[in-house]
Structure formats: structure tokens, C-alpha cells
Amino acid sequence: MARRSAINCKSLREVGALVWSGAPLAIRLRLVFALLIVVASTAIAAVSPVALKLVVDALSADSGDTQSVGLFLGLYVASHWLARVLGELRMYIHAQADRRMFRELCDRLFKHVLSLPLSYHVNKQTGVVTGTLTNGLQGFQTIFQTLVLTLLPVVIELVTVTIVLISLGQTAFLSLFAIAVLCYGYAFGYGVIRTTGPARRAAMAQTEAWGDMTESILNYEAVKLFTAESVVGEKVGKALLRTECEWLGCYRTRALVGLVIATIFVVFVSLTAFYSANQVQSGGMTVGTFVLLHTYMFRIMQPVETIGYASQQLNHGLILLERLFEILRQKPECKTAQIDGPLRGPGYLEFRGVSVAYRADCPILRNITFAVRPGTTVAIVGASGAGKSTLVRLLVRFIEPDAGQILIDGTPISELALPQLRRAIAVVPQDTILFNDTIRYNIAFGKGHCTQDEVERAATLARLHDFVMSLPEKYETKVGERGIRLSGGEKQRLSIARAAIKSPLIYVFDEATSSLDSRTESEIMFNLRNIAKNHTTVLIAHRLSTVVDADQIIVLDQGSIVEQGTHVTLMHKGGRYARLWAAQQCVAEELANITARH
Q: 236, 207 in Cβ contact below 8 A?
């Protein structure tokens, strides 16, 4: 139990640091003001029964003073009214601070997740990450509201009531109350310990279920093509069943604790009633004090129970936050650099002895050395798995080399700020990545705060403008989830326009036409050569027919450069490149013959 408490205390400190350190000064002051109002409203509500006691004593006295009764009644009503008014004011001020802090927290979490390196996202399901964020934010709200709106008022009320009872000399009642509190504390502590494990497993199972749901929805085409609705439904159903079973375990424990608490409450009420009634009959207590004790009995026991249930809610919130803190502890990409500002050089690209391995026994690239003169095109070709796409990841620093350097205009890219480097490079990937938004948004995504004229110029360069203008909504046309409303060629042209709008130093086309038919491929290649004219260009290709015009062709095989030269010189050598060319030409001829026969 001590170990669990230590973990919870650490988590609470992390919550405090997460919330307080990032909150603006105005929000901190507003939160402090709300806490002061909580103190005032709770204290006033706690002493209001004293006014009722004075009213009852004045009414039961033989020579009851009408003026005193009226004054005490006025105080009793005013205390209730003031406590309610302050309570509503507290809710409004707290809501302002709460919603602002929630917005700030969401913003920080989202930016932190985006700042994490590619290696983190590759190893995580998108749905699991979003589910973790959702759970974490829910846990934050649970903790924040429990601490401010539940625990703090209850503690203040208990302190106030205890002071009043001590001043009235009711030590016996306080002793009974202390025993009841100890019994309550043991019962609730048992409940917290017994529900921690099931709640943690339930939160994990729920996150996994969200991950499976999100993944299935993102890949709904594959689900429908293979009529796999029942398969993914069964997988998600099992995760949800685990969630249900674990939560039911928590609720069974809570119900058992609730029965114990109800028994403790009845015993305490009975003892208090017999004690106070005996005191009134023996003359040791006035009727007003009897009313005060019974009023406080319910006012005290309710807060104690509230603290117990709030501790369970607090523990639940901390469990929901555990995996969120795991994300927050992940180190973001290092964006600091010795050099900052836009790159303005001609775009001279060099790889010097670059090697990289994902594992010590699995090298991907070995001693890669080549240079690309400004305004020229280098083509990287080779079989699948040769390391072509790894060169792109190294260039944009998604991964770092184990040895060697990559330089742009003589400056190692490790000395450049990541935003500075990535603004200087435009990548057209093999799989076009589009957002479920307008054509304009998807093109403008490549450059912040660009104008409509810039968007249209980029679309014109990519030979997309005429197609867009033929659509009813033109540039405001929605492309659908992952661009499903566009054809393969249209999506690729949009991707090219997004790259063109950056006006980069270096273009990288990573298998940009591999999924297109021959005719569309020819059109796209024409577009690529058009926008990359006078720019340093890296062309990653599998089809050799797309690289014959390159100024330099580099042939990779098992992570090493085996040949280097132009198309003509490599064909004369009759080496690896020539064999690949011959093999692809044979396949093309066979396909043409099959097509002709049918």
C-alpha cells in the first residue's frame, strides 16, 4: 500500500507540474481566486447550523426574545444565501480557469505528440495514441475537479465543524466521529487498493479497443473488400469484453465498500442519537445543541464519505493519466542547431561515407558517398530493400546516420534546425498523403500562410489547375478521406503541387509514379521534370524507364553503391544496371504481347 501511495503522490506531482507550469499568470490568479471563494463559501455553509442552534435555543427559552429570534433567523437565512451565491461564483470562475487550462493542456499534448520522432509513431498504433490522449485528458479533468470541487471544500468543512464542536465542548461526539472516520478510512483504503489493478487493466483494454477501432475505420476499404467486418468486430469485441469484465470487478469492490460504509454510518447515527438524547434528558445539553449535533452529524459523515469516494475517483484519474505521462516522457526531436534561418545556397548535396543500421547485425546502408551538383538530377535505383527510401529518411533526418555526414552547400545537416532543413526539401512520396479537406488546403499545406495565387501557380506547374477549374467547387472541392474522391494521377499531381509551392532547394521524388499506369506515369514524369528544372533533384525509382534522362544514376545493392554513371555509360558497362534494364524490358514486352493477344 505504501508503494502504491508513493506512485500516486508522484503522479499527483506530475499533474501539478503539467497543469501549473504551463498555465498563464492570469489563469493562475483566477484559479487562486476560485480557491479562496471555495474556502469562504464552505466555511460559511459549515457555520450556518450554529445560527439554527441559536434560533432553537431562543425559541425554547422561557423568556424568548423576539428580536433575538428574528436576528438569528436572519443570520441563518443570510448564511445559506451567501454560501449559495459564493458557490455559483466559484463555479463560474473555476469553469473559466478549468476550460482555459484544458485548452492549454490539449494544445501542449498535441504539439508534443507531433514533435516526437518518426521512430515513436512507427511503433505505435494511431488509435492507441489518440485513445491514450483521450483517457489522459479525461483523467486530468477527473483529478482537477475532484481536488478543487470535492476534496478542498470537504476538508475546509471538516476543519470548520471540528472547531465549532471543540468550542462547544462536545469531546464525546468528536471521539465517536474520530472512530467512524478511522473505520471509513480503512474501508475506502481497501477499496482503492482492490480496484487499482482492475481499473488499470480496464483502461489498457479500452485503449487497445480504441486502437483497433481506429485502425479498422482507417482501413475500411480493405475491411469491405475482404468482407472482414466480422473479423475486426470480433477483435474489438474481445477488447471491449475485457474492459467490461475489469470494470465490473471494480464496481463489485465499490459495492462491497458501499455496504460497509452504510453499516458504519448506521452504527454511528445510532450511537450519536442515543448519546445526545440522553444528554438532553439529563440536562447536559440544550435542544438547540441536540439539533446542531444531528445537523453536523449528517454534514460531517457526508463529507467523509465524499472524501472516500473522491479518493477512488482520484485514483481512477491517475490510472487514466499513467499512459499519458509515458508519452510526455518521450523525448521530442532535437530542434536546436548552431545555424538558423532559411537556406539560400545553390543546393549542392553530398553524402560522405554514410552508414546506418536498424540493428547491429542488420546494416541498411554501407559507406554511401556521392555528390549532386546544383540544378542536376541524381537517380537512385535498385531492387526492393536496397536502401533507397532510407536515403530519403536520412536526408530529412527522420533517422540519423551511424557514421558519415550529409551536407547541403558544405554545411552538415546535423547543424541545421529541423524546420530549416525540412523547409529546404520537398518530398513527393510514393503513397500520396492527403487530408479530408479541400484541394486548396491540401496544396497550401506545403507552405504556411500562402496566397490563392501561389496555390494556383503551384497547381499550374503540376498540370492540375485546369482539372480543378472544371470542378463545381473548384479549389474548395473536398478530396475525401485520404483523397478517395480523386484518381491516382490526380492525387499524385496534387502531391506535386504541394511540393512545388515550397519552392525548395532540393526536390525528392520517392517512387512517385510506381503505382500509376504507363500513360499517367509519362504525364507525371513530364510534370516532375518541369517543376524540378534548375533545382537539385533526387529521384528514387524502381522503374528504370523513368530515370534515363537523369544526369547521374546510382545503383544500390544490399546497401552499397555498386555502379554510378549516366544511362548510356551504365548500359555500355553491361553490369548490374544493364541487367536490371534488360529484365524490365523483357517484362514490358511480355505484357505488351499478352495485351495484343487479348
A: no
61-87 pLDDT, tens digit per residue, is 655 556 666 676 777 777 767 777 776
CA distance 163 to 158: 9
Cell of 14: 506530475
What's the mean per-residue pLDDT of the chain?
75
Orientation of helix 171-218 relative to helix 229-281, angle to 10°: 170
CB of 435 closer than 8 Å to CB of 441: yes
What's the CA gap between 589 and 85, in Å, rounded?
A: 86
80 phi/psi in degrees, rounded to 5: -65, -45
At 96, which amino acid appears? Q
Would you tell me how many other CB atoms lie within 10 Å of the CB of residue 420?
A: 17
Sign of the dihedral defined by the CA atoms of residues 424, 430, 436, 442, in that order: positive
Helix (H) or strand (E) holding 417: none
* DSSP-derived secondary structure for 529-556: HHHTTTSEEEEEESSGGGSTT-SEEEEE
Contacts of 597 by beta carbon, 8 Å cutoff, 6+ apart:
none
349 bridge partner residues: 372, 408
**What superfamily does domain 435-503 belong to in CATH?**
P-loop containing nucleotide triphosphate hydrolases (3.40.50.300)
pTM of the model: 0.62
The more confidently predicted of residues 303 and 545 is 545
Would the pLDDT of 374 be above 70? Answer: yes
Q: Which of 2-11, 55-64, 279-288, 424-433 has the lowest mean pLDDT?
A: 2-11
Domain ranges of the chain: 11-328, 334-424+505-598, 435-503
| H helices, E strands: number in the chain | 19, 10
Residue ranges of E strands in 460-500: none
Say if 334-424+505-598 and 435-503 have the same CATH topology.
Answer: yes
Classify residue 123 as left (phi > 0), alpha (psi -120 to 50) or beta.
alpha
Q: d(Cα 268, Cα 257) in Å, to the nearest integer? A: 16
Strand order across the 411-412 sheet: 362-372, 349-359, 403-408, 411-412
**Is the pLDDT reported for residue 309 higher than 80?**
no
Domain topology for 334-424+505-598: Rossmann fold (3.40.50)
Render 371-411 in DSSP notation, one character per residue. Answer: EE-TT-EEEEEESTTSSHHHHHHHHTTSS--SEEEEEETTE
Compute the distance between CA of residue 269 and CA of residue 267 in angstroms, rounded to an integer: 6
**Per-residue model confidence (pLDDT) at position 3:** 40
List strands edge to edge, sheet with 560-565.
Answer: 425-428, 506-510, 536-541, 377-382, 552-557, 560-565
Among candidates 353, 334, 369, which has minimal Cα distance to 403? 353
Cα→Cα distances 561→251, 386, 413, 557, Å: 63, 10, 22, 7
The CATH class that applies to domain 11-328 reads: mainly alpha
d(CA 32, CA 95): 13
CA nearest neighbour of 19 among 6, 31, 7: 31
- Quick one: average pLDDT of 573-596? 73
**Cβ atoms 242, 207 nearer than 8 A:** no
SS3 363: strand
Instruction: Give residue-wise pLDDT tens across range 463-473.
Output: 888 888 888 88
Phi and psi at residue 247, to the nearest 5°:
-65, -40
Amino acid in position 257: V
